[in-house]
Amino acid sequence: MDHVGSERAALFGYSEGGTMCALFAATYPSRTSALIMNAAFARRTFAPDYPWGRTQTQVEAYLEQVRREWGGPVGIDVRAPSMSQDERSRQWWARWLRSSASPGAAEMLVRMNAEIDIRPVLSAIRVPTLLLHSINDRLLDVETSRYMAVRIPGAKLVELAGVDHVPWGCDADTILDEIEEFLTGVRRGPEPDRVLATVLFTDIVAATEKAASLGDRGWRDLLDNQHAIVRRELARYRGREIDNAGDGFLATFDGPARAVRCACAISDAVRSLGIQVRAGLHTGECEMMGEKLGGISVHIGARVAALANPGEVLVSSTVKDLVAGSGLSFRESGTEQLRGVPGQWRLFTVQR
After folding, report:
1. N or C: which end of the chain has fewer CB within 10 A?
2. pLDDT (tens digit, 9 = 90+) per residue, 272-292?
3. Contact between residue 257 and residue 206 where contact means Cβ atoms under 8 Å apart
4. Fold adopted by 193-351
5. CATH classification of 9-184 is 3.40.50.1820, yes or no?
6. In terms of pLDDT, which residue wins out, 186 or 184?
7. What's the pLDDT tens digit per position in 142-181?
8. Dist. CA 101–CA 109, nearest whole Å
9. Do the bridges between strand 129-134 and strand 156-160 make them parallel or antiparallel, or are there none, so unpaired?
């Protein structure tokens, strides 16, 4: 902490890591802003006045399992039951253990943990303390955290509903929310899902005039035919339709080159209907809100499309840069101030 210039830190530890953090907090309260322990314990083995610890027989049985099975997913069934049936999780767990310790080092760790007993230290902890523990933890009884909560002055205990001992398991989001609220006083809740995507906007040029000339029935038939063409090309280029507002479409792609080619294909195909579309594309981080899409990148895509000429596919410089080497050609269209979007934006027309 001295080396990196950290005067005080909030400490987080789970299992025996929580014990380590508790010792630090008691020894260096001036350097500890908060103590957070997840599925931790004050003592690891059984005692007459501490009935939740492991018996010596249980310790020896686990040691034998370590000697026999180390290299495989040892302990995942009780430490992370929610992941234990997933083969990829089991492979990751085994690789994590192998990367962490040799079989001999693992055996030494188990024996050292069996000697842990910080019960006399608990009353000396004088920093804000949060205890988190699943009531269904199969490795450590929740009573171990209840025991500490009573003996650490002012400690707060939150009992979780999941089954995992590790904090990155099924209770991870709740644990993060509790920690955030404990440290900041504010709980923001889960962040919206964000994805990197290329957004495509299209709309029919002079739609109002065309609708007036065709009448309601004719305009409806034209829209149905246009929708069929757009959806055919979206399927062909693996685009995802997000919204359809009358004569316009919003779609996303996980590849900008396919998005550009799809826009060109749509622009060419709808000419058979006697109409033209304008199309605009931008690539950026978007917020997924259920089936909808949001974020500044979506607004930028809409603004780019609004500046496109009839039959033109207009893209932001971001799209142009990302498709370098794809064989697509562009002509610079100028620099624009997009309404409501900070900065100047260089736009490019797709040449085809």
Report:
1. N
2. 999 999 999 999 999 877 778
3. no
4. Alpha-Beta Plaits (3.30.70)
5. yes
6. 184
7. 999 999 999 999 999 999 999 999 999 999 999 999 999 9
8. 9
9. parallel
- Min mean pLDDT across 69-83, 214-228, 288-302 is at 288-302
Q: Which two tokens stand for residue 328?
A: 């697509």
For 129, the token pair is 């303390």
In angstroms, rounded to a whole number, what is the distance separating the alpha carbons of residues 3 and 19? Answer: 24
Does residue 341 register a pLDDT over 90?
A: no
Each residue's pLDDT tens digit, 52-77: 999 999 999 999 999 999 999 999 99
| Dist. CA 272–CA 243, nearest whole Å | 24
3-state secondary structure the chain: CCCCCCCCEEEEEECHHHHHHHHHHHHCHHHEEEEEEECCCCECECECCECCCECHHHHHHHHHHHHHHECECCCHHHHCHHHCCCHHHHHHHHHHHHHHCCHHHHHHHHHHHCCCECHHHHHHCCCCEEEEEECCCCCCCCHHHHHHHHHCCCCEEEEECCCCCCCCCCCHHHHHHHHHHHHHCCCCCCCCEEEEEEEEEEEECCHHHHHHHHHHHHHHHHHHHHHHHHHHHHHHCCCEEEEEECCEEEEEECCHHHHHHHHHHHHHHHHHHCCCEEEEEEEEEEEEECCEEECHHHHHHHHHHHHCCCCCEEEEHHHHHHCCCCCCEEEEEEEECCCCCCCCEEEEEEEC
Q: Domain residues of the chain, as ranges?
A: 9-184, 193-351
Half-sphere exposure of 307 (CA within 13 A, CB side): 22
Contacts (Cβ under 8 Å, ≥6 apart) of 80? 89, 93, 164, 165, 166, 169
The answer on pLDDT for 123 being more than 90 is yes
Q: What is the pTM of this model?
A: 0.57
Q: Is 156 exposed, middle or buried (0-12, 13-18, 19+ CB in 10 A)?
A: middle
